[in-house]
Amino acid sequence: MADAKKKAKGFIAEFKEFISRGNVMDMAVGVIIATAFGKITTSLVNDVVMPAIGYFLGGTDLTQLNIVLQPEVLDEAGEVVTAAVTIGIGTFLSTIIDFILVALVVFIVIKVMNSAKTKMEALRKKEEEAAAEAAPPEPSAEEKLLMEIRDLLKEQK
User: H or E stretch including 32?
Assistant: First the structure.
């Protein structure tokens, strides 16, 4: 029983260490921001893009664009006996446009990050080259030996 408690405490400590790492926190923030961004793009597609496309196509609501495979069946009282079988083309188009917008934004963000990374690496390389040029070259082993001999000769005088 004591061994199980010890394992549980070790597991909890290991989990706390895992959670407190920066990568996990960064990932959590990224997921939260991505969720909010997804809501923004969905609203953009559903509330701006799709109505505009529908307007230019003759005032139709594209989210209601469906292909009816089997119409609904009603009884004498007007109650639905069998629901209609439809393919939601408008919803599908909306989802595709939403995906394309998210993919475009992710592509742009990655492109900007890669560009910034390339510029930072080039700047760092220039700084390293400047530092290497500023520092005098280290004397060779032969030069060091000659300097030691010179210093010993000076001491003998």
Answer: helix 22-44
